[in-house]
């Protein structure tokens, strides 16, 4: 381009030389400027592309919406009941054919070893719940860092630290994979054989998995107090509930006399509703419900609780104030 301009100007007369020299200089500058701009455009393009990679990650895997959902999921998992499920080794979870087998197997299993296995299950569940909480915190922190990079780094800084940002993205991506894998309760690590050789002609291959049951929760609309009785109802979220055994507890809050202290109790219930009678009127009671313990239960930390206040009898207000010393 420069040569071309020079050869053009060479044919001009000397009088116009200065003008053209100026023009050359301008052209030259414009070419250089364009090259610089080109370079800048390239850098800018790269910056935008890389920035978009981060933005996309923030909007997909690490989106606030998704993190919130994971939070809810963990809260739910903390309220679940965990059981050891005994499966023949070759069958997958959910396979209908194994329905008869586990009970038979349970009879073959050494009870003492099974008790130990349950302890392992409890510990594993606790650790899993702690790890999930921790992983989610790390993910949230990672998200904040990425947002911070985007908001505070200018183009040059951002590009200079791209390797670090890239590493961060890949670390977070791996963390997310671990997190998602852990959301599903896993297999139990069986250290010892659970079946004694004695008596069993053919030792079955078994595997143990942790299974969850959704939490039992009071139906707060349908549970209500009357003057001297309450009717309570509960349900299990997102699960077609088969008949189960529950354990209901109640307790009078702030008993005023020794006699009132016996206003409490534990009752087994086989349906998902129950009435408790002979309560005191105009008083607060606390009720809790959970599944009745079974042999394979390994972890159940949470139980739902509600407080209901019985109604006063229509004209009791006056009488009781008058009757009080
Ligand atoms: C740089 O990019 C802008 C807009 O993206 C464009 O208008 C301009 O022509 C580009 N410059 C060069 C030298 O390519
Ligand atoms: C990514 O993870 C590795 C290994 O855990 C760690 O050493 C490194 O510091 C992490 N990088 C960033 C940017 O977080």
TrEMBL record:
Residue span, DUF5581 domain: 40-208, 213-317
Signal peptide (UniProt feature, chain positions): 1-15
Keywords: Signal
Cited InterPro entries: DUF5581_C (IPR048317), DUF5581_N (IPR049231), FN3_sf (IPR036116), FNDC11 (IPR039581)
PANTHER family: FIBRONECTIN TYPE III DOMAIN-CONTAINING PROTEIN 11 (PTHR14537)
Name of the protein in question: Fibronectin type III domain containing 11
Organism this protein belongs to: Chelydra serpentina
Gene from which this protein is expressed: FNDC11
